[in-house]
Amino acid sequence: MNILMVLTSHDRLGDTGEKTGFWLEEFAAPYYVFKDAGANVTLASPRGGQPPLDPKSDAEEFQTDATRRFKADTEARAALASTLRLSDVSADDYDAVFYPGGHGPLWDLSEDRDSIALIETMYADGKPVSAVCHAPAVLHHTRARDGSPLVKGKSVTGFTNSEESAVQLSNVVPFSVEDALKRDGGNYSRAADWQPHAVVDGNLITGQNPASSAAVARAVLDQLG
């Protein structure tokens, strides 16, 4: 069971002068769900090497058992520091792909041709394609085999407009995850802000927010049997 996790390489939060990147819990929780199930986990990012961590996600209030476990795990930290370059990754080598969120993917992975091709190939091959929180943004330009948006007619979720408003970044992000999924024809659903909500439609699996990350990972494992 080989699972690819794809992280952002983007570290600038628009024009705010602040840093962004991937959200620590949204990486750590799924990582250990996969590892504890015996999966081989490979990490990749557009630029390769160490992906940028959203500094806000490292605050004490956002720490969990998974993030604390990661910080004490020298092997995992070394793997994160040496992610593969996404252009060197082949969809044929993996049984599933998972995208952690954080605001970074809105800028790079949503437009990344290697990521788009990877998702389109894995989805067409019936392999689980999964993303949580802001990471469903990576589906924005993906297409099904018939040329229609990949999410068209499919049940999906992602970070809500009200959650974006709550973190006061609605006017900073390049686009709204919720609006993009709806524009592309997705059947968008949501739970209350910050509550777990994972949606499975065939081999497309999405989660609303950080609280949904482990549930999305478990849904991937369910599909892999």
Give an overview in words.
The protein has 225 residues and is of the alpha/beta class. The protein has one domain (2-224): Rossmann fold, CATH 3.40.50. Helices cover 29% and strands 15% of the residues. It is built from 7 helices and 9 strands, in the order E-H-E-H-H-E-E-H-E-E-H-H-E-E-E-H. The chain has helices spanning 24-36, 65-71, 74-81, 113-124, 161-166, 177-183, 213-224, and strands spanning 2-6, 40-45, 84-85, 96-99, 129-132, 155-156, 187-188, 198-201, 204-207. The strands form 2 sheets. The protein has a 7-stranded mixed beta sheet. Strands 6-7 form a two-stranded parallel ribbon. Strand 8 and strand 9 form a beta hairpin. It is globular, with a radius of gyration of 16 Å. The N and C termini lie close together (10 Å). The model has no long low-confidence stretch (mean pLDDT 96).
Poorly predicted runs of 5 or more residues: none
CATH architecture grouping: 3-Layer(aba) Sandwich
> What is the C-level CATH assignment?
Alpha Beta
- Helices and strands, in order, run as EHEHHEEHEEHHEEEH
What class would the helix/strand composition place it in?
alpha/beta
Counting H and I runs of at least 4 residues, what is the number of helices? 7
Shape: globular
CATH superfamily: Class I glutamine amidotransferase (GATase) domain
Strand content: 5-15%
What does the radius of gyration come to?
A: 16 Å
**According to CATH, what is the topology?**
Rossmann fold
Mean pLDDT: 96
The major beta sheet can be summarized as:
7 strands, mixed
End-to-end gap:
10 Å
**DSSP strand count:** 9
Question: How many individual domains?
Answer: 1
Q: State the share of residues found in helices, binned by percent.
A: 25-40%
Strand order of the largest sheet: 3-2-1-4-5-9-8
